[in-house]
Amino acid sequence: MDLRWNCHSGVRLVRWHITELRDALAQSYNQIWGDAANPETLASGSSHKLAARNLIGATFPNHQLLFSEQGKPLLSPPSAHINHSHAGDYAILAHHPEKSVGVDIEQLRPQLLKIYPRFCNEAELSLLGPNPQLETLLLIWCAKEALYKAIGEKGTDFREHLHLRQWPTDIALKEGVLTAEITLLGHAQNCQLHFQRWDGYAAVWVAIEA
Length: 210
Known about the structure:
Strand content: 25-35%
Number of helices: 6
């Protein structure tokens, strides 16, 4: 793990720069999870998946990892809400003792310049203007992914239910805040998201009322 920090939102995060080979990650997975190790994960899980599982097991020893019907990760005993993500050479874990949490990490990818109208609504497109910056689009994508994962319902629509109201336009900012509104029935609320950027990566996380 190359970095641990606490956000003033109450979210705690662990970031892992993955430099280990898959065999080493698999060995650690066996050691961390013991009898609770999933043979399918051990046999066919990617390096990213093994790293994410190891982050959870190392942060929450003596717990089991379960999944909701919607695929959201859950701890047993339920001592915290958790979420994780991975991209490139990094995996990240976010957890909060009371609120539902979502986190997403991504690398800069030019495809976002082509597809952003699919996940941005009309108000967001108006604020972005005709030539949005790739770094800004990456933050918005990560923010909507984090919100989606915090909500944990597969029927959540990025354009209809997740509305980014404000985001930083200075692409040199390494960390900061975005504001958003969730309009999905049963989850409607305003919230703040936090981000970090480094070496072509962005991570965004949020804690919302469950």
